Amino acid sequence: MISLTLFIIVLTTAVSFISFSNEIWMNKLIFHPPSIHGNKEWYRFVTCGFIHADIPHLLFNMYSFYLFGSAIELFFKDTFGDRCYFIFLLLYITSLIACLIPTYYKQINNYNYYSLGASGAVSAIVFVYIFIAPMQNIEPMFIQIKIPAFIFGIIYLAVSAYLSKKGNSNINHSAHLWGAVYGIIFFIIVCKINSKFNPVSNFLMQLDGFFYNVKHFFNR
User: Fold this and answer.
1) Residue 153 pLDDT level (bands cut at 50, 70, 90)
2) What's the mean pLDDT in 80-84?
3) Rounded CA gap, 123 and 129, in Å?
4) What is the DSSP string of the chain?
C-alpha cells in the first residue's frame, strides 16, 4: 500500500505540472483572497497547496515533505494505531487552511495578491517532527552541516520571516510561520485526545538534556 506521503507527493506533482502549462487551471486553483471573499471560492484555501510557482519551488517542498512526512507517518502509526492515516491527512489538509487565514484577512481586498504552494502544510509536518525529536541531527539541502532539529527550526522561521517582509513573489513565506505554529498545536491536542504520549514533556526533557550538556561543557 502506497504511503500517504507518497500519494500526496504524486498528486501535488501532477497538479503542479498541469498548472505550469495551463494558465486557466492555475488561476482557478491559486489562493486569491478577493475571489474567496466575493465569490465564496473557499476551495482555494486547499487547492493552492497543490500548485507551485516553478519546478525548484515544487522540488524543495516535496523533498522536504518526503524526508519529514515519511518519519511522521511512521510515528503516527506507532502512536495512533488505525487512526494514523486519518490524523496525518487531517493535519496536512487543515494546515493548508490554517496557515493562510492571517493572509486572507490581511489581503482580503487586494486584487493583486496571489499565492500558491504547499509550504504551510510542509512546515507543519517539519515542526511536528522537530517537536518529537528536537535533538535529531538534520542536514539541510545543499549544506553539508548537521545541526539539531530545533536549531534548524529557528533558522527556518527566521529566514521565512525575512522573506515574508520582502514579499516579492507569489510564494507566501508567512505560511511557513503559521503552518509551524498550527502543526505543533494540532499535534499537542491530538496526542491529548488519542494517546498517552505527552509531546510537551518529551520536547522539554530533550532540550533540558541538551542545555545541561552545554552548561557542563563550558563549566569544565
Assistant:
1) confident
2) 93
3) 10
4) ---HHHHHHHHHHHHHHHHHT-HHHHHHHSB-HHHHHHH--TTHHHHGGG--SSHHHHHHHHHHHHHHHHHHHHHHHHHHGGGHHHHHHHHHHHHHHHTTHHHHHHSTT-TT--BB-SHHHHHHHHHHHHHH-TTSEE--TT----EEHHHHHHHHHHHHHHHHHH--SSB-THHHHHHHHHHHHHHHHHHHHH-S--HHHHHHHHHHHHHHHHHHHHT-
Mean pLDDT in the chain?
A: 88
| Superfamily classification of domain 4-218 | Rhomboid-like (1.20.1540.10)
pLDDT over 90 (residue 53): no
